[in-house]
Amino acid sequence: MSMKIALIAHDRKKEEMVNFITAYETVFEHHELFATGTTGTRIMEQTKLQIHRFMSGPLGGDQQIGAMVATNDMDLIIFLRDPLMAQPHEPDIIALLRLCDVQGIPVATNIATAEILVKALDRGDFAWRELVHKYKPGVPE
Ligand SMILES: O=C(CO)COP(=O)(O)O
C-alpha cells in the first residue's frame, strides 16, 4: 500500500539524504513523496522519483508539511536535521516535530533511524496507517 512520506534535510545533510534515497529508491518509488523545496529538487535531480515539493523550509515548507501532519495525512517523516547549526526557522522545525508527537507519526531525525523505518515500511509494518486513513474523523468542530 502506498504511504505519504515527507523528506526534509538541512543543507549540510542534503547529500546524506540523496545518498539514502538513492540506496532505497526501489522502496520509495512505491510511495507518494513530499519534500521541502530544495530537498525535493536535489532528490529529483539525482533519482527518477517524482516528489511534491512544498516551499523551502525557511519560507514555510516545514509548516506546510506540518499542516498535513495536523490532519493525520502524513504517514512517515524523514527529517535529517543539522544538530550543529542554528536555523532561522527553528520554531517551525519544533512545531513540526511537536505535531508528529501529537498525532503519533513515525519520524526519523537521523539516518540510522531512517534506515530502520524504511526497512519496516518495505516489510509492510506501516499497514496500521491504512486504518488511520479509513477511520480518520473529520475536522473537529
Ligand atoms: O530548512 C529545511 C527544513 O527545516 C529544509 O528546507 P529546504 O529543503 O528547502 O532546504
Automatic annotation (TrEMBL):
Coiled coil: none
Name listed for the protein in its UniProt record: Methylglyoxal synthase
Keyword Nuclease annotated: no
Positions of substrate binding: 10, 14, 36-39, 56-57, 89
Active site: 62
GO MF, any single term: methylglyoxal synthase activity
Signal peptide range in chain numbering: none
One Pfam family recorded for the sequence: MGS
CDD domains, per database record: MGS
UniProt cross-references to PANTHER family, sorted A to Z: METHYLGLYOXAL SYNTHASE
Keywords for the protein's UniProt record, in alphabetical order: Lyase
Entry similarity comment: Belongs to the methylglyoxal synthase family.
Annotated MGS-like domain residues: 1-141
Protein role: Catalyzes the formation of methylglyoxal from dihydroxyacetone phosphate.
Reactions catalysed, as given in the entry: dihydroxyacetone phosphate = methylglyoxal + phosphate
Gene that this sequence comes from: mgsA
